[in-house]
């Protein structure tokens, strides 16, 4: 399962940067989908390695928090050994997030079987009914 798509990468980092990163020899002059999807697949495999200890894979749905993580990992990989400080820092932060996720200090908001949990839903409680037949003393 890939946690980000080529379209999401393009929206995040721009088509021109991705053309430069995927067209290694400059022959194609356009975005090389196979190279980009290979980097996204590798990044997704890295994420799976960290998730496998806590969640049943594949996840039922992709948590939004994993999309930028996958994009940052794939971008770093595309830069090979020429990554800028910003790209390297984003990669380090993504890896740190995955490490925290693996040890349980951060949660994806999904259950162990991959279903989305809704922990922040409102909850209504009541003290019980005021007027009920079983509580009335002959009035109702």
Helix content: 40-55%
Structural class: mainly alpha
* Gyration radius over CA: 23 Å
Number of E-type strands: 0
Shape: elongated
Please tell me about this protein's structure:
The protein is an all-alpha fold and 140 residues long. It has one domain. The protein is 48% helix and 0% strand. It has helices spanning 6-13, 15-22, 33-51, 66-78, 85-103. The radius of gyration is 23 Å and the shape is elongated. The model has no long low-confidence stretch (mean pLDDT 86).
Primary descriptors:
140 residues, mainly alpha, 48% helix
Secondary-structure topology with pairs:
Elements: H1 6-13, H2 15-22, H3 33-51, H4 66-78, H5 85-103
Helix pairs in contact: 1-2, 3-4, 4-5
